[in-house]
Amino acid sequence: MLQAEIHTEKGLMKVEFFEQDAPTTVQNFVTLSEKGFYDGLTFHRVIPNFVIQGGCPDGTGAGGPGHTIKCELTGGNQFHDRGVLSMAHAGRNTGGSQFFICHGRENTSHLDRQHTCFGKVFEGLEVIDQIKGGDTIEKIVIIRE
Prior knowledge:
Elements: E1 2-8, E2 11-17, H1 23-34, E3 43-47, E4 51-54, E5 84-87, E6 99-102, E7 117-123, H2 125-130, E8 137-144
Antiparallel strand pairs: 1-2, 1-8, 2-7, 3-4, 4-6, 5-6, 5-7
């Protein structure tokens, strides 16, 4: 089992990945995390009752890791709900490093099968509600069990 700890200035979120549904997206996130790509980046886009978004190296929402990955939209877990991690993109198959975490299902269901869901926060859900724009991702630690 593959998990992650997302350490933020507001607290810790523990994530389980959807490896079977989104293997490429999970591997991309894991690789970037293990290289320290996310360390010190901010949640540059925070919309209450919608999402918190991070992973942009320039903090504007326009940056990425220098590569793109294809969307993985056909798995059984491709539904945006509270705590779900999903890949942000500027159009189909343009994701790279930016990801968002959903506040809840009410305002995110239209994203189903449009953005790749690749994990879910199983501990520290309250942190999602505390994150404000500009808050920092201190580090992401990958746990292999």
